[in-house]
Amino acid sequence: MSTNTALFERAQRVIPGGVNSPVRAFRSVGGTPRFISRAQGAYLFDAEGRRYIDYIGSWGPMILGHGHPAVLEAVQKAVTEGFSFGAPTEREIELAEEILKLVPSMQQVRLVSSGTEAAMSAIRLARGATGRAKLIKFEGCYHGHADALLVKAGSGLATFGNPTSAGVPPEVVQHTLVLEYNNIAQLEESFALHGQDIACVMIEPIAGNMNFVRAALPFMQRLRELCTEHGALLVFDEVMTGFRVGLHSAQGLYARQLPGFRPDLSVFGKVIGGGMPLAAFGGPAEIMQQLAPVGPVYQAGTLSGNPVATACGLATLREIQKPGFFDALADSTRRLVAGLEQAARQAGVAFCGDSEGGMFGFFFGPELPQHYSQVMATDKERFNRFFHAMLEQGIYLAPALYEAGFVSAAHSAADIDATVAAAAAALRS
Ligand code: KE4
C-alpha cells in the first residue's frame, strides 16, 4: 500500500504540483494531500485506508453522497450503451428539459463539459448578443480559468483589470472591470462611466469562492436595475450554488425576496453532472438563438452532452426533486454550522458561519464578511490549524479558507455530531 506522502512525491514527478487542479495540493493549508482511493456515502477513504467524513463532495457535485444506487444504476446502464457518439441523443433533450423545468429564467440551455467552459461561453454569448466588449466581475468571485476572467482589480474604477495569471496578455483583460462585492457605490460609478459599453456583469450570487459570502438584497436589486437600465446582461454563475443551495438555485432565493427577479443568463455545473464532467449555460431563447449553429456566436465541444455524464446528471437531478430532499439537507447543514458556532463559543474563539441548502462556510472572525478583503482579514493561521486538527480526526474540510463546504444527503445526524465533537476538540488545541 502506497502512503499519501509516497504518492504525492510520485505524482509531483509527472504532474505539475502533483495535482490536476491547484487547490487539491493543500498549498493554502500546508501538509500532504490525501490521495483518495474510494468513496461511499458521506465518506472518503484515502490510500492508507483512513476514512474521512467528506465536506468537499468533489467541490459541490456529490449532493447525494458517493455511490447513490439510482445514480450508479443509471451510469452503469449508460456505459453499456456507449461512451460517446459525437451525435445528438435523446438523453441530452431530457436533461435540458429537466434543467429548464427547474430554472424558469431559462428557455434554452447548452450543455458543455466544465464550469470554465460554460462561463467563458456565456461571456462570449453576452458580448455577441449585445455587441459590447466590457464585462464586470467581483473581487473574490471565481468563474473558472478563462483568460478574460483571470483578472484583479485595476487601480480605481476608471481603469480595467490586470491579469492575475502569467500567460494572460494585458490586452485580454483590458475590458474586464473588477469591483468590490456588495459595493453599490462602485456599481453606480462603473455604470455611469461605462454603462453603454458593458456586455454583462457576472456574479456568484452566493460567493462560494470567498468561502461563503451572500450578495446583499439591496446590492442585488441595484445590480439588476442597473443592468436593465443600461442594456447589460446579468449573468448568474451558479456553477456552485446551482441545485445546491435549493432546488431552484440561488436565483430562486432572490426571486422569492425580489418579486420578478431573474438573471439574463445562468451558468451551471457540478450538481447537474452528479460528479461527471458536465456543465451548462442558458437563458431566454432570443439570446440563446445567437449561438452556433443558429446564430453568429461560435461555441462547440467534442464531449458536450456526453451520454454517460447526462445519465449521471439526470439521475442526480431526479433524486434532489424528491419531496423533503432540500428541507432535510438544509436542516443537516444548519445543524452543522450551529454546532461549530457553539463549539467555538465554548472555546472562546471568534468564529461565525452561514449556510444555504447544502452549502456552508465559516470564518475565524467576529462577523460574516461582506466582501473579499474582509474574508482575507479573517484568521488564516487559526483556520489552517483547525483544518489540520479536523483532518487528523477524520474530518475532511475544504483545504483553503476561501473555499465553501458541502453537506450531502448521505451525511447522517451521527456524522454531523461527530464533526461537531471533533471541532470542539480541535478548537481547544
Ligand atoms: P470548473 O471549470 O472547475 O468545472 O468550474 C469553474 C467554476 C466556475 N464557477 C464557479 C462559481 C466555481 O466555483 C467554479 C469551480 N469551483 C472550484 C472550487 N472553488 C473548483 C475546484 C477546483 O478548482 O479544483
Low-confidence stretches: none
> Strand fraction band?
15-25%
The number of distinct β-strands equals 18
In this entry the ligands are: ligand KE4
Spatial strand arrangement across the major sheet: 4-14-13-12-9-5-8
| CATH classification, class level of the largest domain | Alpha Beta
Morphology: globular
Calculate the terminal CA-CA distance, rounded to whole Å. Answer: 31 Å
Pairing-aware structural class of the strands and helices?
A: alpha/beta
> Percentage of helical residues?
25-40%
The average pLDDT value, as a whole number, equals 97
Q: Note the total helix count.
A: 13
Q: Give the CATH architecture of the largest domain.
A: 3-Layer(aba) Sandwich
Number of domains: 2
What is the alpha-carbon Rg in Å?
A: 21 Å
Summarize the biggest pleated sheet. 7 strands, mixed
CATH fold group of the largest domain: Aspartate Aminotransferase, domain 2
- How would you describe the oligomerization state of the chains in this entry? single chain
User: Superfamily at the CATH H level of the largest domain?
Assistant: Type I PLP-dependent aspartate aminotransferase-like (Major domain)
Written account of the structure:
The protein is α/β, with parallel strands linked by helices and 429 residues long. The chain has 2 domains: 4-67 and 323-428, Aspartate Aminotransferase, domain 1; 69-320, Type I PLP-dependent aspartate aminotransferase-like (Major domain) (Aspartate Aminotransferase, domain 2, 3-Layer(aba) Sandwich). Helix content is 38%, strand content 16%. It contains 13 helices and 18 strands. Strands 4-14-13-12-9-5-8 form a 7-stranded mixed β-sheet, sandwiched between helices. Strands 1-2-3-17 form a 4-stranded mixed β-sheet. Strand 15 (352-356) and strand 16 (359-363) form a beta hairpin. Helix 2 (69-81) runs antiparallel to helix 9, helix 5 packs parallel to helix 6 (217-230) and helix 10 runs parallel beside helix 13 (413-428). The protein starts with a helix and ends with a helix. The model has no long low-confidence stretch (mean pLDDT 97). The protein binds ligand KE4. Ligand KE4 binds at residues 21, 23, 59, 114-116, 119, 142-144, 204, 208-209, 237, 239-240, 269, 279, 403.
